[in-house]
Amino acid sequence: MNTAIKNILVPTDLSEKSLNAIEMAVQMAIRHHARIILFHMIPNYFMIDRTGKQVIGYKTIEENTIKVQAGLDALKTALTERYEGLKIETKIRHQDLVDSMNDFVVSENIDLVVVGTSGRQKLKQLILGSSSYHMLSYVHCSVLLVPETCTHYSFKKILFPVRVLDNLNAKLELSLIIAKKNQGVISLLGISDEYGPESLTNAFLDLKKQLHMRSADYTSEFLLTRNKAIEISEFSKKKAADLIILNYEDEESWKSIFSENFLKKIINATDVPLLFLKPKITIKIPQGNPNAYDITLPCPG
């Protein structure tokens, strides 16, 4: 898995929380010499009659597109004036939000999607599933969730939980890249319950050995707990972590919709940026809900 960060996609509605995510993306782009694409989705609305599917409200859509493009252009101008050499583009699409982002993953070789969030979920969002969780499920590359309350944009203290075995080498490489770009320290945290596989302990020890051999600046601890999400959140506070890098691997997803699985718990319990490592899919895969428009991104969750 390629862990370099060269192309960053930021969905935005130009709200305060999305502007915060843009600032995070800009700072990362400067450190990684990456390109940014600012993306806004304007939904088309259709009416089906005997002649087939027809767009309605075309005049309003056209006016909104002109207005949004002006806002994106003004933002691009302000950012390029502020940061000399910043590579930034703007895009508008009218199809489904996640479909659009996955098209960009393919056509623009996107490595990371940066999304602003409002933080804690309410009961309704917990039951129905937040937009952040929806994107983690369906976007075909790694995702960084940036809380609206985030006020610093460098990653000096990077928390690396070891809780599943998937993609650990790629996660190690990504952690080392980010630590180097930020002159940061990696906190390696092995975390399991008392029934966890021996292979997880061995993987933790192997990662510790690799960090030592590569002369990385790191610390390491191993915790036994049944509530991994809460313990990771508490550990991040104790270590004053400003980034948590997680494998995209849900746990206990079989639970009812009234219960939180690992991903929802960690999103809900943590106030620092969360980077979910996902293998990039570079072929187009149709999504199952082409009419599910969400024009409020970034939004709670």
TrEMBL record:
Residues 5-147 form the UspA domain. It comes from the Bacteria. Gene3D superfamilies: 3.40.50.12370. Pfam families: Usp. InterPro entries: Universal_stress_UspA, UspA. Belongs to the universal stress protein A family. This is UspA domain-containing protein.
